Amino acid sequence: RIITATNSDLHTLISANRFRRDLYYRVAGFTVHVPPLRARRDDIPALAEHFLRAVSAHVGPRELSPCGLDRLRFHAWPGNVRELRNTLELAAVQSDSPIIELGAVERAIRAVGEVASSSISDETIREALHHHGGNVSAAARTLGLPRSTLRDRMKASQGKGLNPAG
After folding, report:
1. Would you say residue 70 has pLDDT above 70?
2. Cα→Cα distances 68→83, 89, 101, 119, 143, Å
3. What is the pTM assigned to this prediction?
């Protein structure tokens, strides 16, 4: 049995003669579509707990502070679950405490390869502002952005519902 994963549309690649049709029919017996992590933010706490439990044999028990978990919930996760795993492993290894605080999470995200603020969707910004009751400073911390950058994004997106009141 073979389990494969791709982020490419194989039907499009077959049409463009960039993937062999016969190979597709050999490996595509059962297809499961899994949305990207940014579309399943409610999965992040369970995944984080799983990854921290896995690394605990090497570094001791670790858990996320509420602020650290919030920061994970609002990251764009361009690297999907692998990026989350790598971020948590790094934060756990670098943390001197059993509680992984916001600063450790932010450093790990940057080290693993956080993308530019432009990749943070307007919807994610709206969610962070709503989550923090319109508190721009708290939303910016959660998103890992300077407050001024969040303000600039909000100003540039006027009319799209990006205001502190949500």
Report:
1. yes
2. 15, 14, 5, 20, 11
3. 0.68
